[in-house]
Amino acid sequence: MNLSASTAASVPLSEKAQQLAQRWGYTLLLLLGCGVLTLLVLAPLYTLLSKSVKNKAGDFVGLDNFAQYLGSGAVESALFNSLWVAGLSTVVVVLLAFMAAWALTRTRLPLTGLIRGILVVPILAPSLLSAISLVYLFGNQGVLKSWLFGAEIYGPIGVVLGSCFWTFPHALMILLTAMENADGRHYEAATSLKASPWRIFLTVTVPSARYGLVSAAFVVFTLVITDFGVPKVIGGQFDVLATDIYKQVVGQQRFEMGAVVSVLLLLPALLAFVADRYVQRKQTASFTAQSTPYKPRANKARDWFGALMLLPAVVFILAIIGMAIYASLVTFWPYNLEMSFRNYQFDLMDGGGWGAYINSVQMALGAMVFGTALVFFNAWLMERTPQPSGLKGLFHLLSLLPLAVPGLVLGLSYIFFFNDPNNPLNMIYGSLLILILCTVAHFYAVSHLTAITALKQLDREFEAVGESLKASRWRVLVTVTLPLCLPAILDVALYLFVNAMTTVSAVVFLYGHDSQLASVAVLNMDEAGDIAPAAAMAVLITITCAGAKLVQGLLRFWLDRSTRAWRQGKV
Amino acid sequence: MKKLKSALAFSLCAAAAGVQAQTELTVYTALEADDLKRYAQSFNDDHPDIKINWVRDSTGIVTARLLAEKENPRADVVWGLAGTSLLMLKNEGMLAPYAPEGLENLSPKFRDRDEVPSWVGMNAWMAAVCVNTIEAENEGLPMPSSWEDLTKPVYQGHVVMPNPNSSGTGFLDVSAWLQMMGEDEGWAFMDGLHNNISRYTHSGSKPCKMAASGETPIGVSFAFRGARLKDQGAPLELVFPEEGLGWEVEAAGIIKGTSKLDAAQTLVDWAISREAMEMYNEGFAIVAMPGVAKPVKHFPENADELIIENDFAWAAENREAILSKWQKRYDTKSEAQ
Questions:
Q1: CA nearest to A287, candidates A193, A189, A177
Q2: Which residue of A26, A354, B216, B294 pairs with A385 in a disulfide if CB–CB is 3.0 to 4.6 A?
Q3: How far apart are CA B214 and CA A143, in angstroms?
Q4: Please, which residues 229-288 of chain B have a Cβ atom closer than 8 Å to chain A?
Q5: Does residue A530 contact residue A342 with C-beta atoms inside 8 Å?
């Protein structure tokens, strides 16, 4: 902002030169954005991944480690398992999330606020919660064991169920953003042409959500294939690539082999990235300067159908959460089912107690404020200001890279990078700040995609009109773009907050003696066999996140009401 | 940057001095979280001037973290980590050798063999089989009493054990079988056991936890976890197979380059004192100082006769080869089924 203002004020430049200076200003800012992501993601990753071509002593050995890993015999099955589990989970999740997003945005169902709240619950809860629930539901002592017809939850079934549960909200968030700002004129036109509802769905709804669908698929696939939490806890010996990293790094402290598997894991993600780029190229804005927001007409039959579409996801999620709450109240599953709140006395338990909980909340707030600002500003620079296309592509790639990196790998990378005695930043090591930075980096990709999806839907004409009115892009940003994107901004803020509350895999390597986290405490208590207190702490985290969701929901509601008139062009 | 750091350090020290002249030690550990308060309290009763700042996590994570921090270590002392891990740190040159006061009182099995040891032992941490009595009865399973029993067809699909590639407990078992039975017989035994295994887990305590919650009748795990779960009301019977038990020493050592060497040495002196041994004895049946241990609830009285003559050097040297052989033979279990 200062740049354009000061140059305009001090030196009377010709208009053309001024524009050029402005363009350069934007480019510089985006370059700065690339720099920040390099610092937070690329440089740390390099310190670890470069070990894949070195031996234990640090000498360069070419591809020896890769040859050794690929020759160890178990790789084919791990790779095959990873691919089909991730593929199946992607299909299920994207389908369910699309059905739910459609019902929430294209019908006039009541209580959508509550339903939205229920549907995001999986990211409000630590992943361990769903693992405990799945075992209590479908394990050998499980209440619904017979539903599996003799098959075991420990294995691919458990991995797919668990993965679907925790990735569902990620897909839903992207799809809702993609479908929320629908252009009412398209629907009116289609209706006046007497198109059937099915035809409208295929020719208007699906194409406008295409960007979101592809992004959601890309995100879910990558999340599942890089996650080791679910397969580790419930997969039994069902081998996937991500658990191989765990075995190499945590089981045997062989960082170079862990790096090899991490590099291999980047490949499918890179492939998904290329495919994503290819499809996205054709996307244009669906919400233009002339758009009127879509408002579904009354239609009972369609609403009932919508409710039916929501049912599978809602039931699945409620079952898992209900079981988890029950698990936190029983004394000793499954032999002593007496219920009490005894498990909620955290100070009697280990793992940091309430102190860890307060640390977690602070860390989550920090990640939310810093992360949302960073993500949205960068996304705006990339989408809404003139940028060289190469730079845009580079930035997009950097933004999506964290998605393909297992948290375990990111956490270790942060040790190597930030603990280096020659790194001037090494003073932040062990502090709450490094936990915040690591968390923002870890969850950058989905936040970025959400922001981009929201920004893409706005017509380029907003800026063009602004320019002709001699309003700078900055003004358009503050007066038009930000208000229109506020729902997505709130989504991103919530996403970062709740993930910071529940994340374990990266931060487990980084917390200091005075920055223990509640999510890590959950894991430790479970590890120590205190399953019920672990479930209790997990439920407490979930309630906190649900509180954040409630605040966000109220803000959205208020925003919607106070800007509706403006958005509908009545002012 | 140096200036800024020393200024920061100075102000921190000044702030601390205002309250109490205390040295703060950063101690990395894999001890049970609920033991930390007790251990620190006992130590502070004798040394109120040293404050312990714990960084605790599971063995694998703490070891990985220590190794990754090698270039710029953050820990002053390691207190309560597996001997195998300390051996790794020693080989990386990360430990400062120190002969603590009263070293001569330790059993030779419980210290680094060097004259000035890089690490000293606290207690032994031994294998055990957790059997869920309710589920075993439901399935009509007899109570096993030996490792060999676990290969009998009656137990098919009822045994869970940790994967030695992910878990130190798993490796401790495998290494003990190979040492007790010899290479050939050891692998033959594991082939037999493999037929009865329903799944391998990534964590060493998981099999016992699964047994406690009835997810499996039999879990190969370690005694400490089984005893704790029994205390919580789990219907478990702890079986200590008669052939002998694998074990691991839990140990302490000083990180090379610590700026608080005096305090670190004070802590390690105390960590092998008689008082400390009595403290360890509350949870562990075998401690490093002979003649101290009293019987512990749920543990066998002859625990020290049950553990094998464990050759840690052999285990460390052959670890990679054993693990890769194990992986080739058994790690594709899901395909075989």
A1: A177
A2: A26
A3: 13
A4: 229, 232-235
A5: no
Same fold, B2-124+247-299 and B125-246+311-336: yes
Tell me B165's DSSP state.
T
Contact A73 B328 (CB under 8 A): yes
**B166-195 per-position pLDDT tens digit:** 888 999 999 999 999 999 999 999 999 999
Query: For the ranges A34-38, A342-346, A557-561, B216-220, which has the lowest average pLDDT?
Result: A342-346
Query: Which positions in chain B touch A429 (Cβ < 8 Å)?
Result: 74
Asked if A119 and A166 touch (Cβ cutoff 8 Å), the reply is no
Tokens of A502: 């529940």
What pLDDT does B68 receive?
94
Of A503, A437, A251, A185, residue with least CA distance to B319: A251
- Six-digit token string for A182: 């629908």
CB pair distance less than 8 Å for B8 and A421: no
- Average pLDDT of B102-110? 93
pLDDT score of B288: 95
Which residue carries 């992207």 as its tokens? A174
Tens-place pLDDT, residues A510-536: 998 888 899 888 888 877 777 777 888
What average pLDDT score do residues A547-554 get? 91
The single-letter DSSP state of residue A287 is: B
In angstroms, rounded to a whole number, what is the distance separating the alpha carbons of residues B14 and A372?
37
The 10s digit of each residue's pLDDT in A415-438 is 999 999 999 998 899 889 999 999
Confidence at residue B336, expressed as pLDDT on a 0 to 100 scale: 34
DSSP per-residue string spanning A477-495 = IIIIIHHHHHHHHHHHHHH
Question: Closest residue of A to B170, CA-based?
Answer: A251
Task: Provide ipTM, 2 decimals.
Answer: 0.85
Give tens-digit pLDDT for A63-114: 888 988 887 766 788 888 999 999 999 999 999 999 999 999 888 888 888 8
User: For an interface test with B, which of A241, A527, A537 has the most B Cβ atoms less than 10 Å from its Cβ?
Assistant: A527
CATH class of A2-49+80-567: mainly alpha
The pLDDT assigned to B332 comes to 62
Of the listed ranges A128-142, A293-307, A387-401, B323-337, the one predicted with least confidence: B323-337
Which residues 62-91 of chain B have a CB within 8 Å of chain A? 63-65, 67-69, 71-72, 74, 88
C-alpha–C-alpha distance, residues A120 and A97, integer Å: 11
Choose among B166, B209, B332: nearest Cβ to A74.
Answer: B332
pLDDT attached to residue A79: 86
pTM: predicted TM-score of the whole model, two decimal places = 0.87
In sequence order, the 6+-apart residues with CB closer than 8 A to the CB of A288 are A183, A459, A461
Please tell me the class of the B2-124+247-299 domain.
Answer: alpha beta
Q: Residue ranges per domain, chain A?
A: 2-49+80-567
Cα angle B273, B278, B283; round to 5: 130
Per the model's pLDDT, the better-predicted residue between A345 and A60 turns out to be A60
Three-class SS state of B122: strand
* B-contacting residues in A 155-174 (Cβ below 8 Å): 155
B332 contacts chain A (CB < 8 A): yes
Cα–Cα distance, B71 to A421 (Å, whole number): 7
Closest CA relative to residue B270, chosen from B4, B25, B18:
B25
Inter-chain CB proximity B54 and A253 less than 8 Å: no
- Judged by CB atoms closer than 8 Å, whether chains meet at B215 and A141 is answered as yes
Pick from B33, B165, B233: which is nearest to A350 by CB? B33
